[in-house]
């Protein structure tokens, strides 16, 4: 059965404290300076209220020492693309650019001094905690218009562009530099019932998880095109308007649940696993190439009972690096977990596509509300279950309505350069943004016609087989840094594999599931639709299919 809350026990000797009273007991004996850092999306007011009511402590809110908002806006964030209404180049600022002058503190003669807020770790301290909520909370606060969501702008309406391309890069770099010396991690998703794990215990837990298969906590959000498969089949968000985008493994936002049960758990970023244990997780060669960035993502696009995705493409390599700041680009693939000969995937230019005419129709849809027939310009392929579509950067594409797509892609995920969105309004009734100028600047006009089907809709090639199983390459392209393979296993069959120094990511696309067993004796069950990361340090492992019938498992790895 699909689990919404995959959970991993803390390492022996780790301390997991739940509730304010138990969290308070983890504070040091006075006198001391305690820094509590974290993102703006934390409920810092609730934290301060608890500190005032519970402890004989002096409080210092570092947010009151930020430079004036006008200075922050001018200083923080990359100037390139500042006037672009859709994207910005990723910020390279350190977090201390929020300040003109950092506050200077001394250890008190008695009691505690608690310095709190984003950037607190920059102030001299004796003990360091990091308070956190997952990034989905910041996205929700931004969508709700909650002031103070953006770094250094406490009274302003939040800007999602600033959140994604300025705040998150700064906050992530800052958090990652603290990971090796944190004394405690504080999960404040429920401000009335926080969860805390000690820093050494967290690092020991992650050191163990970096050598075993691990699954991140999944969730779905809603969009105007979303469907309802995940609501009906997996039980996600039954009250939501739809379940469009399923976050199975999107490393910059993914979290790992560390705890002993739903009442005693903390969610910690998956990214910290890559920061603390890069060679064990990624492998030496992948780490040398991508640093601590986990370069592959798995997510769902649910249009079952929904609509077509927008027709869009993604930035090509040079454009992504020079204009947007990512060191690698957003190549994608669509694996059809559910589809049919009657549903569609739109992919690649037709042989007779006239790009000038295409552009004029896109512009007419924006300025005059004129509908456009996408198939005049782009191929439409039957979205048959089990088919993989390769989507290198610059390729126009969209999933049609009625599909469940498993997107197996490069990690960048915030750069959809939309050409056409079927004249569809957003949730507030406004036209959805169409950054088509970016789209046409990146459109690959070279691969078209028969080359689209030949290169991007490949036939499976068996590379290994054994008693009751086979492994196929179902998608590999020279310009893409990863490939997609698929296991087919008879009921009860067991296949063997080896990470060979590079991580694998698995997903059960058909059947009841598999059990993975490592040479060290660790086991992990993987049910239908679940995604699992197999760190490079795992080495040899075996996959055993459930006894109920044949199973198919897709696998992605860096080439």
What can you see in these coordinates?
By secondary structure, the protein is of the alpha+beta class. Helix content is 22%, strand content 30%. The strands form seven sheets. Strands 2-8-7-6-3-5-4 form a seven-stranded mixed beta sheet. It has a six-stranded antiparallel beta sheet with strand order 9-10-13-20-15-18, with no helix packed on it. The model has no long low-confidence stretch (mean pLDDT 96).
Supply the key terms.
single chain; 559 residues; alpha+beta; seven-stranded mixed beta sheet; six-stranded antiparallel beta sheet
How big a fraction of the residues is strand?
Answer: 25-35%
Task: Indicate the radius of gyration in whole angstroms.
Answer: 24 Å
Mean pLDDT: 96
Question: Helical region count?
Answer: 14
Structural class: alpha+beta
Order of strands, widest sheet: 2-8-7-6-3-5-4
Number of strands: 31
Helix content: 10-25%
Query: Which term fits the overall shape?
Result: globular
Low-confidence stretches: none
Topology at a glance:
Blueprint: E1 7-8, E2 16-18, H1 20-24, E3 32-37, H2 44-54, E4 57-61, H3 69-75, E5 112-116, E6 127-132, H4 135-144, H5 160-178, E7 184-187, E8 195-198, H6 199-209, E9 219-221, H7 229-234, E10 245-249, E11 255-261, E12 264-269, H8 270-276, H9 278-282, H10 284-290, E13 296-302, E14 311-313, H11 317-324, E15 332-338, E16 340-349, H12 355-368, E17 378-383, E18 388-391, E19 397-399, E20 404-410, E21 417-420, H13 436-442, H14 450-456, E22 461-466, E23 469-475, E24 482-489, E25 494-498, E26 504-510, E27 513-518, E28 523-527, E29 531-534, E30 540-545, E31 551-558
Parallel strand pairs: 1-11, 3-5, 3-6, 4-5, 6-7
Antiparallel strand pairs: 2-8, 7-8, 9-10, 10-13, 11-12, 13-20, 14-21, 15-18, 15-20, 16-17, 16-19, 22-23, 23-24, 24-31, 25-30, 26-29, 26-31, 27-28, 27-30
